[in-house]
């Protein structure tokens, strides 16, 4: 056994480090934290704020193995990451493995290279308790906020909701942006563009320097331009430079990977983690833009070799954020001689990091900017053409121009032809187009990260999990927003003739941007109204500053917690006792048929329209909102239309036909088959003829494309992508197959693989009881209905093997299930009678279409 035991967080990291250390070292992984706050219950003594840490069930075997390895080692080297989270992992290991100070050493490095690892071994330290306490403060404070605020939401909004210090603030940003867009009143103005010709016939595109507020003013300017001789009034050429951006921090990497590669924040961090663990880049959680002298020299050598010495301009950058901490260097390649790596997906991100770092050490780009003023003294305004020429590309040779989502696509500066002052120009065409002001854009993932960083909310390690959490909680989503249409006026002057036309313009549409859900909006409003301080951007940033002070040893973490909780808990009690229930209720009007109020509100199962009051003798009726509808904006007329769904049409091929809206959007139901109505098509507009067209399209799509053992095979596209169907088996078709041109051998291969997988799926199955023991990705498990249960260990604390599970009795399996869920086999009450009564009442109120809604929405 090796004298030295090195413990890191991840097996990939362990594998890389093991290569650099000799036979006297054994490297093992802790697979992240080995202990944490308990999953059930708060796990914090609120009198002293002492956390009750426990080793999770899935880590007990690992801890036993690590303890055995510790006993055989003379020295234990704790080599977790160099940030607060890594320091806490090292501390938990030391506590749980009972490591004495004389038998443990803490080592840190920001890159996994042989030089960095050996240098860290030469310069060990002990665990930094200040960093540990900063992590404990964050963990405990966030646990308290979540555990005390969430039950308030269950009582005041609906069950199953959650709140969090950072996630709730992120949702608030998205909600406020959506309200800003909703309340925005666009203002129209007329922008003029001209295309002019010089004496050699070369075109010059120019814009009028001032817009006109009114159509009449723009038209008058065009009339005046008819007889105007345009001249070059001024030509100004001035030199300029463009400088490279700093090397990547966590947030700038996330933003740039989003805009250049289309990666979401979670994918970016997953790939960056792999690049770090495999030794290609430095530590990827950092808010520093600093580079080591070694890195600056390495970049200089590579730039000189690849581009020439004139492109090299070594420099260092200063981190603007006063709170930048933890890692001491920007994200950069560990070896500039490695220009690419084998894995295609990893290489795309690596190239981004590599090129950005090189660019940061390269010379400025030199440009020559030209501005040409075109007009005549008779005209109230003049045109201006702008262009630029790159004299020396500098850093652009490695990285190109960085554009943000706010950049105006219309402002692309072009190369201009040579002209002289006083030169006469002919106009080819002058266009006056009505343009409307636009509201602020919805947040992309990159934009949200930028805003959180700007406000000082969260830290590099928190952005990805925060963005994932608010989507998992269904507070926000990235649904497509259908555009609206409006009329715009366009006037064109060409050949002394003004042509006026009215065009249609689409606006307000969006894709892949964050939009709050109805639930997210109601929850955010409730929290903002009742917990102003917690949802305050400044407060959240101040909490981060307190964590920084704890990390620096300038503040005691339990004193901070005491101060926070003394104000927070009384507020929780006050809101729980006095705050009104939040449903986002909007009274839309009075139903003309029943005389009852029509409400848009959040119910137990989400957003809905309700006719009648909950305390009326006759129960209210409900309707679900369609995709794209929102309780904050739906109109009275749109709400009443929803009660026309579902409606019946005539039979087709002897099977009933109806049109409705379900969980996945509007559909035509033909017999027992649900067929989605195309996106953007109003289900209320679907008549008999259109329904039959949709059904026929489905028939064609479902026609067999091949056979397998004499049975037909069909194909389609579902919520999880393209698939083929054989008998009752659905087989997903991976991207490596050409879905549109599947060959018989492709189909045989896919179905064979699926059948083989299904054959190996069940270890035991009791169909009548809906219980089975199945092979899963992480080993065997029990499935009961749709619920999944763990298989307990044997009496000797070892796992069951697959062969042993074949002999387990049904009674034993039932016992395993009830041990995990005592109510699993409890007899459920049948709600049929209640549903029938509700349906009957609903039918009298809103006729047949609304009959199904009460049952679905109660």
TrEMBL record:
Residue ranges annotated for the Topo IA-type catalytic domain, each copy included: 128-572
Region described as Disordered: 824-858
Site (Interaction with DNA): 33, 138-139, 142, 154, 285, 473
Enzyme class: isomerase
Coiled-coil segments on the chain, per record: none
Biological classification of the source: Bacteria, Pseudomonadati, Bacteroidota, Flavobacteriia, Flavobacteriales
Keyword check for Magnesium: yes
Residues of the Toprim domain: 3-112
InterPro entries: Topo_IA, Topo_IA_2, Topo_IA_AS, Topo_IA_cen, Topo_IA_cen_sub1, Topo_IA_cen_sub2, Topo_IA_cen_sub3, Topo_IA_core_domain
Record-given protein name: DNA topoisomerase 1
Pfam family, one: Topoisom_bac
Family designation: Belongs to the type IA topoisomerase family.
Gene designation per UniProt: topA
């Amino acid at each position: 056994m090796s004298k030295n035991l090195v413990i890191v967080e991840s097996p990939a990291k362990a594998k890389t480090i093991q290569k650099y250390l000799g036979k006297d070292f054994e490297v093992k992984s802790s697979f992240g934290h080995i202990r944490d706050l308990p999953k059930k219950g708060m796990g914090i003594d609120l009198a002293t704020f002492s956390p009750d840490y426990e080793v999770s069930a899935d880590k007990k075997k690992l801890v036993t193995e690590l303890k055995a390895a510790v006993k055989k080692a003379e020295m234990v080297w704790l080599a977790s990451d160099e940030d607060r989270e890594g320091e806490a992992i090292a501390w938990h290991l030391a506590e749980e493995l009972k490591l004495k100070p004389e038998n443990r050493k803490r080592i840190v490095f920001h890159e996994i290279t042989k030089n960095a690892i050996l240098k860290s071994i030469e310069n060990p330290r002990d665990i930094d308790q200040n960093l540990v306490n900063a992590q404990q403060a964050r963990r405990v404070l966030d646990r308290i906020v979540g555990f005390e605020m969430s039950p308030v939401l269950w009582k005041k909004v609906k069950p199953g909701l959650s709140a969090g210090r950072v996630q709730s603030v992120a949702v608030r940003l998205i909600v406020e942006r959506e309200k800003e867009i909703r309340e925005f009143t666009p203002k129209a103005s007329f922008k003029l563009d001209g295309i002019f010709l010089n004496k050699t016939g070369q075109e010059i595109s120019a814009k009028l320097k001032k817009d006109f507020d009114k159509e009449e003013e723009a038209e008058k300017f065009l009339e005046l331009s008819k007889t105007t001789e345009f001249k070059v009034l001024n030509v100004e050429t001035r030199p300029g430079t463009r400088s490279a951006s700093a090397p990547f921090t966590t947030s700038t990497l996330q933003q740039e990977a989003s805009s250049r590669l289309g990666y979401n924040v979670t994918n970016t961090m997953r790939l960056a983690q792999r690049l770090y663990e495999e030794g290609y880049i430095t530590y990827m959680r950092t808010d520093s833009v600093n580079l080591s002298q070694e890195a600056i020299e390495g970049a200089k050598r590579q730039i000189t070799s690849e581009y020439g010495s004139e492109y090299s301009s070594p420099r260092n950058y200063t981190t603007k954020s006063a709170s930048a901490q933890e890692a001491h260097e920007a994200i950069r390649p560990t070896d500039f001689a490695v220009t690419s790596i084998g894995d295609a997906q990893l290489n795309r991100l690596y190239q981004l990091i590599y090129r950005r770092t090189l660019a940061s050490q390269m010379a400025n780009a030199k440009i020559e900017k030209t501005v040409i003023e075109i007009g005549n003294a008779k005209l109230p305004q003049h045109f201006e053409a702008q262009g630029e020429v790159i004299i020396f590309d500098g850093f652009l040779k490695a990285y190109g121009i960085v554009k943000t989502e706010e950049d105006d696509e219309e402002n692309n500066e072009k190369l201009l032809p040579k002209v002289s002052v006083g030169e006469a120009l002919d106009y080819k065409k002058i266009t006056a187009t009505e343009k409307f002001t636009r509201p602020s854009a919805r947040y992309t993932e990159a934009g949200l990260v930028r805003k959180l960083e700007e406000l000082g909310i969260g830290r590099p390690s928190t952005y990805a999990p925060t963005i994932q959490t608010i989507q998992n909680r269904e507070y926000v989503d990235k649904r497509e927003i259908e555009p609206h249409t409006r009329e715009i006026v366009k006037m064109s002057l060409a050949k002394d003739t003004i042509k006026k036309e009215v065009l249609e313009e689409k606006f307000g549409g969006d894709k892949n941007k964050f939009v709050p859900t109805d639930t997210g909006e109601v929850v955010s409003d409730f929290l903002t109204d009742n917990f102003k301080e917690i949802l305050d951007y400044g407060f959240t940033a101040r909490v981060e500053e307190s964590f920084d002070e704890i990390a620096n040893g300038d503040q005691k973490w339990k004193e901070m917690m005491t101060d926070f909780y003394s104000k927070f808990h009384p507020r929780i009690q006050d809101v729980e006792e006095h705050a009104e229930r939040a449903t986002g209720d909007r009274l839309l009007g009075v139903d003309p048929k029943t005389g009852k109020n029509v409400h848009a509100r959040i119910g137990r199962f989400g957003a809905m329209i309700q006719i009648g009051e909950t305390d009326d003798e006759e129960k209210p009726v409900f309707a679900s909102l369609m995709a794209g509808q929102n309780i904050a904006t739906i109109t009275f007329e749109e709400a009443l239309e929803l009660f026309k769904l579902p409606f019946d049409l005539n039979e087709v091929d002897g099977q009933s036909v109806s049109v409705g809206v379900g969980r996945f959007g509007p559909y035509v139901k033909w017999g027992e088959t649900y067929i989605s109505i195309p996106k953007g098509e109003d289900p209320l507009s679907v008549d008999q003829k259109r329904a039959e067209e949709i059904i026929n399209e489905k028939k064609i799509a479902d026609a067999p494309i091949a056979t397998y053992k004499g049975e037909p095979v069909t194909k389609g596209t579902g919520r999880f992508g393209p698939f083929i169907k054989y008998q009752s088996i659905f087989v997903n078709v991976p991207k490596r197959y050409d879905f549109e041109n599947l060959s018989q051998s492709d189909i045989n291969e896919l179905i064979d693989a699926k059948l083989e997988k299904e054959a190996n799926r069940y270890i035991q199955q009791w169909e009548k009881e809906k219980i089975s023991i199945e092979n899963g990705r992480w080993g065997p498990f029990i499935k009961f209905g749709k619920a999944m249960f763990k298989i307990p260990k044997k009496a000797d604390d070892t796992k069951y093997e697959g062969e042993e599970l074949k002999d387990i009795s049904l009674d034993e399996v039932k016992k395993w299930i009830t041990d995990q869920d005592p109510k699993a086999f409890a007899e459920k009450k049948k709600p049929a009678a209640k549903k029938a009564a509700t349906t009957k009442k609903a039918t009298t109120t809103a006729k047949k279409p609304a009959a199904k809604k009460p049952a679905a929405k109660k």
